[in-house]
Design brief:
By secondary structure, the protein is an all-alpha fold. It is built from five helices and no strands.
């Protein structure tokens, strides 16, 4: 018996199950990061309180950064699975959806550096002594604000991806009309 799995012979149900597991991981990790981690740091309009929160929970911010990367690593194979499942409906639209999805993933991955960058001005390196503490607090606060803006930009591309996936799912025979 050949143990190699041929991608063309794998059933759509198998792909759908793997995709469901990946989506479940993305949802759980995404909610964890958004509600339990990101929400704990930024105090709107108050750079000093934000800096105090970051310093007090530096490890939590690092966990959030790593969790976001895990979520994005799950999103890449999910994009392939969605393409394989919906390509028979319309190959060009499925490919367009994958492109929007991959741009969203890339923007969000690059943007995660902004969340991590909030740690640098609050460190103990000698070169930071050239700045006043308030200036360093503003830099950390600004990094988190940039993260929020970058995340919103990634959502524009993700929204287009969802629009095309939704169209293809509606046109497919996978869901009853």
């Amino acid at each position: 018996m050949n143990s190699n799995i041929n991608i063309d012979e794998t059933s759509p149900k198998f792909y759908a199950r793997i995709g469901g597991v990946l989506y479940l991981i993305i949802i759980v990790v995404g909610l964890f990061v958004e509600m339990l981690i990101r929400a704990k740091f930024k105090v709107s309009g108050n750079a000093t309180s934000t800096a105090i929160n970051i310093i007090a929970s530096e490890q939590l911010l690092r966990i959030g950064f790593t969790s976001s990367l895990i979520m994005l690593m799950c999103a890449i194979p999910l994009a392939l699975i969605m393409y394989v499942l919906l390509c028979p409906v319309n190959r060009n639209i499925a490919l367009l959806a994958v492109f929007f999805n991959l741009v969203s993933i890339a923007v969000e991955a690059f943007n995660n550096l902004n969340m991590f960058a909030a740690l640098f001005p609050l460190g103990s390196s000698d070169y930071l002594k050239a700045f006043e503490p308030q200036q360093l607090h503003v830099l950390a606060y600004h990094a988190l604000r940039m993260h929020t803006s970058g995340y919103n930009i990634s959502l524009v591309f993700f929204g287009m991806n969802c629009f095309f996936w939704g169209y293809l799912i509606f046109k497919s025979d996978y869901v009853p009309k």
